[in-house]
């Protein structure tokens, strides 16, 4: 078994932060299918271009996506090829969720 380092912990924390927002999660899931331009992502996810820009900046800061210049435009893709299969694995998870302990009305804290 591989030793867990602070680098591993930080990477998982960044992924958790990214997945904590539904729009960022949808962006990551869209980019696991194919790279995309921000305007196309905004249209597909029904958010404004400014909202998309903010989420992409966050995902870039977390090291999860990268911006690729393309003339006067920029497209985005997942920053690591291991991320798409990891997201696929997460989608296959089935969790029993207690509605009173998960989400906006969480009483666990």
UniProtKB/TrEMBL annotation:
Entries under SUPFAM superfamilies matching the protein: Winged helix' DNA-binding domain
Sequence ranges assigned to domain HTH arsR-type in this UniProt record: 4-98
Entries under Pfam families matching the protein: HTH_5
Any one of the GO BP annotations: response to lead ion
Protein keywords: DNA-binding
CDD domains attached to this UniProt entry: HTH_ARSR
One of the record's GO molecular function terms: lead ion binding
Signal peptide span: none
PROSITE patterns (UniProt xref): HTH_ARSR_2
NCBIfam families, alphabetized: HTH_metalloreg (NF033788)
Name under which the protein is recorded: DNA-binding transcriptional ArsR family regulator
Species the sequence originates in: Cellulomonas oligotrophica
